[in-house]
Amino acid sequence: MSAQMLRVTAREALSPLVTRFRFEHPEGAALPLFSGGAHVVVEMPDGDVLRRNAYSLISDPLDGSGYEIAVRREDGGRGGSVFLHRQVVVGDLLRISAPLNLFALDLRAKKHVMIAGGIGITPFVAQLKQLARLQMPFELHYAARSRAEAAGLALLPDLPQIHVHISDEGNRMDLGAVLGGQPLGTHVYTCGPEGLIDAVAETAARLGWPRGALHSEVFMAPPPGTPFTVTLARSGRTVTVGAHQSLLEALEAAQVPVDWSCRGGACGRCETGVSACHGQLEHHDHWLSDDEKSSQTKIMPCVSRFRGDTLILDL
Amino acid sequence: MTLQFHDETFRDDYTFHNSPEGIRRFPFPFDQDSYMYSVNLEPHAGGRAGSPFEKRFDVDEHYVAEMRDREITLRDDPLRCQSLPHMELAGWDFLELVMVSKSEDYPDLFELHRDGDRWHWINRPLGIEQRFTFLDATTLPCGPLEYITRQTQGDHALLDQREGNLWMDAGMITSQADWSLDFDIGMNFFEWHAPVPKANEMGVFQRALKFLLNLQQGAPTRRLNWTMTVNPRLDTSPENYHKWGPEKRTITPATVGSKQYLRVELQTLWRLPRSNAIAFPIRCYLCSLEDIVTVPKWGRRLHRVLRDLPDELAEYKGFAVNRPVIVDYLEQFDDGAETSPGIFPD
Q1: Catalytic residue selected from B68, B223, B307, B323
Q2: Which of A261, B49, B165, B286 could bridge across to B188 with cysteines, CB 3.0–4.6 Å?
Q3: B1 found inside a domain
């Protein structure tokens, strides 16, 4: 995966839990432009561990002077966001991958409706800038629990098409109302917790929206779980996966090469064959089909886990 | 090296010809003595000096004549260039990619000066000078895709990425191996590949699509494809089959060496920045059998590949009718000696 060392040139707290970071090329070279919804993978050398997390870009896609991300500190997470919050300061150099977009706007749409829950606002911040350039009609709905937690407020322009729903203030988002009156040819994009994505899908189905007009991206962090052990078919080695480590991270720590890209179960790049499975694979990805998942012959090591006696991978 | 652009034709009197250097740099597609489909993708990150793999967009001795031939094809059939409305941004992305690449790789032939969105483009071989505003199509004589592909050898498809698939939603297709943009436009990756025999059962398309959906900016990839064409004709389109199809019947033992061409496509794939689309240039190289066999390794190998090719592939590639004559001709250049690995001449 192509990547380059970039310098942290700014960091700013957007809320108690969310911090914005800006990266620029150390010699001031222009960075590749991108499309709204793209993410980068940030590499973090944290002691003996090399952490890699994917973050949506929030800066202007047509501005190559720097990349910006907004990171929510996940105290119960695997450690990447905590590292960024606690250790990374202006002047540091970090390795940042080239942008990749698995959540692009469908430019055929007559209108774009964006629905964000919590930190799921981030991909839309860049998409709003792209839509403004393209002069396309849009509407954005941003739901957060409380105003104090709503880091996105600092990132959103003051426009009549932007609607903020704060549940603490009794202003919950009414999906039926949001999706009900949209013109034909509208596409809807949802980013946030799985519950929000499911609710949008159900509401849209009830209102007769075509499936092809619905797009979504879930938070990309691999979920923690109970530790487990895998065996590698080719070498016979065993690798233990910790509670707050993904299978991919455990393989990398054991110097087992696995191809990867999004590290969030969406791109399909790390798909790995399973040669024996006595137990239950816990699939968390959005790549394998339901049939592939139930067959227990493939796993996406970036997000999925295992519970049981023996798991042998084709590695 | 100074390029001498040929004054030559790809139709009617067919005066197309390769120079001796042109033959040596021909992208011979077979790296071993047999052929089967594979996802033979490799990074498009330069290559042997002087080869067609060296630059991002190869410009060779046929450049000016090929652009003239494209103009004739477009005059007769404007639908060879189409762009669905949502693909204009991808057209600009591609225009930028070509202009930046060519001006950096061939500074004596092409110049690009940029002052914000105000661009100034100079194309010396074609005698074009254009000032325009980037992202404002009203400042160009035609859309951005058509504008730049009238100045870039090869066919060019722009693929939109959505719903976990790629969609052929724009293109400039005038030198195609018997497929039609007007027919394929709007189709997805599996639909437009449906006529290809064997490959689908082999899972080739699933694997290739998965790879392409993850294609990264700044990391273009390439592969070679090939077929056989009678006479050095670029426009072997279904629309004009009545013009070139009957020419297959002109192959005899006396004419096969000079009239039968190996047609090679250097296909490259590029992720575009603003649109997230994929640009898919398909660059066509032609070389007659009598020129191919001037490289002994190629003569031996081509004989073995074509002799042993499965029937359905010869059928699909449209030369089954002439295969016996071709193989007979090539046999005299195959002394049974071993061939070295790789595609380049010894």
Answers
A1: B223
A2: B165
A3: no
